Amino acid sequence: MVTRGFFSGRRPPSDTDARIPPGQYLEQGFPVLSAGPTPRVRTEDWSFTLKQGPKPIKKWNWAEFNALPQSKMTRDIHCVTAWTKFNTPWQGVMIDDILADAGIEPPTTFTLAHSFDGYSTNVPTKDLVTGKAMVALLYEGKPITADHGGPARLLVPHLYFWKSAKWVNGLQFTERDEPGFWELRGYHMYGDPWREQRYSSDP
Amino acid sequence: MSAEPSPQSPWQAATITRIEKRTPRVTSFWFQPSRPFAHLAGQHVDIRLTAPDGYQARRSYSIASAPEAGGGIELAIERLDDGEVSPFFHDVAAVGDEIELRGPLGGHFIWEESDGGPILLVGGGSGVVPLMAMVRHRTLRNKAVPVALVFSARIWDEVIFRDELIGLDDRLDGFNLVLTLTREAARRPSDYSRRIDARMMAQAVERLPKAPKLAYVCGSNAFVSAAADALIGAGVPAEIIRTERYGV
Ligand SMILES: Cc1cc2nc3c(=O)[nH]c(=O)nc-3n(C[C@H](O)[C@H](O)[C@H](O)COP(=O)(O)OP(=O)(O)OC[C@H]3O[C@@H](n4cnc5c(N)ncnc54)[C@H](O)[C@@H]3O)c2cc1C
What is the ipTM of this complex? Predict the structure, then answer.
């Protein structure tokens, strides 16, 4: 439906067009979105736990986690509130390397990421492994600030950015695809920006 | 010009039925959706504008009207001069135009009567919009729920819904309005003229008969961060604070 009187808009330059998913616009800044106040997690108190169902598999403290092999990922990110940001540079520990350190293969098809503030989000396990996702520790070479999810956030850049849980403190492998905090509140179970899977009513 | 009837599409055409200037920079628009829906106080809709060549811009806008108010849904849109979508509403949109929207959306930043109270609402600028829906809902449904609304605006003339809010405050029925003006002197004895801080939040809590059960903070990102920190500084537990950030 064409909107009467809407002509101009702020079209992306054609060379970048192909990198912007439907309904998104290009953002230069880095807006912040979260459900509550920003938790200030001290690295002394930080830990990361891998679980299968209720059973802990392995737990790392900040120093142990930082000693894991680190990788860099520079990716475009897409927020459900319609901004896309190009070339965001992250550094952290690939999920593959976390599993390797725990000495396991992915035990189930689904995963819930948990955060220090009690929030959670679901991601299929295959979207976390084979170089697709990391637990990020640095943004633009510097520690991630608290409002952007520091000290550590999940980074699953090919899905809408709410799946990249801030203040992440663990991954839990689950048998079923269990909705997390946002998914229980109307957001899509998978969240592919290229298929515009924003809300649960989207196909 | 009307939307193709497609049952799967969450988008629908809504007709602008009324336009009213609220402040020099904020105007309310009432929309009558072709497929009316029930919303909860605090929810938003997404709006999509389409140019003749197919280019689309979409943005979220909170619903200002109470769920039980008839007459379509009210959106209060602030004009950002160099913005893409908000100037369109201020300069181009007219009564009778059809605009595509989808909703209601959002399942976290909502207040229902069954959530109870007291509730503490903290809004900056157009961040007051979803809080207004909560205030109106409470006034229509259950005045027994005590509410304090702390509303930060730059100047007196930019206090959106000012007459309605002061009218509600004057009823002394458990709704407390606290205005804080950041670039002008306070006009009412109970108001402030400074940025929100922990002391102001502590005094807002004291206006409630008991500690708040829920606190809602909405506005720009910088405002929400500062106000949420001020609430925590005033002893409000982080677990009861819900935030909605309008972005940059
Ligand atoms: C859940 C939710 C609810 C909301 N509710 C409301 C509401 O009730 N009322 C309300 O007024 N707003 C609300 N907003 C904000 C609203 O969605 C829009 O962000 C706002 O109206 C600005 O949109 P715009 O297109 O006018 O500006 P945009 O084009 O998005 O620009 C925003 C600002 O960024 C700058 N900018 C961004 N990109 C560029 C660029 N490429 N070039 C130049 N400048 C740029 C501009 O300076 C401008 O000032 C809400 C947001 C959310 C997420």
Answer: 0.83
**Are the beta carbons of B15 and B32 closer than 8 angstroms?**
yes
Angle, helix B221-233 to helix B198-206, in steps of 10 degrees: 60
Residue nearest to atom 27 of ligand 1 (CA): B83
Find, among A166, A170, A90, A101, the residue nearest to A132 by Cα. A90
Q: In 10 A of CB A18, how many CB atoms?
A: 8
pLDDT (tens digit, 9 = 90+) per residue, A28-53? 887 777 788 889 999 999 999 999 99
Q: Which of A27, A36, A202 sits opposite B243 (nearest CB)?
A: A36
Helix (H) or strand (E) holding B56: strand B56-62
Is residue B81 lining ligand 1, measured as CB closer than 6 Å? Answer: no
pLDDT in tens, A66-98: 999 999 999 999 999 889 999 999 999 999 999
pLDDT in tens, B162-186: 999 999 999 999 999 999 999 999 9
Q: Would you tell me which CATH number, out of the four given (3.40.50.80, 3.50.50.60, 3.30.70.890, 3.10.360.10), belongs to the domain B113-245?
A: 3.40.50.80
Q: B74 CB under 6 A from ligand 1?
A: no
Domain locations in chain A as residue ranges: 46-195
Tell the burial category of B94 from Cβ atoms under 10 Å away from its Cβ (0-12, 13-18, 19+).
exposed
pTM of the model: 0.89
Which residue, B107, B123, B117, B128, is CA-closest to B40? B107
CATH dotted code for A46-195: 3.90.420.10
- CATH for the stretch B11-105: 2.40.30.10
Do A82 and B59 make contact, defined as CB atoms within 8 angstroms?
yes
Give A164's Cβ-side CA count (13 Å radius). Answer: 28
What token pair was written down for B224?
A: 């929400």
Query: Which is nearest to A113 in space by CA: A68, A161, A150, A163?
Result: A163
Alpha carbons A99 and B92: distance in angstroms, whole number: 55
Q: Are A81 and B247 within 8 A, CB to CB?
A: yes
